[in-house]
Amino acid sequence: MSTARDIMTPDVTCVRSDESVVDAARKMVELDVGALPVRGPDERLRGMLTDRDIVVRVVAEGRDPAACTAGELVRGELVTVGADDPLQRVLELMADRRIRRVPVIDGHVLVGIIAQADVARRLPDSTVGDLVADVSRPPA
Question: What three-state secondary structure class fits 138?
Answer without folding.
Answer: coil
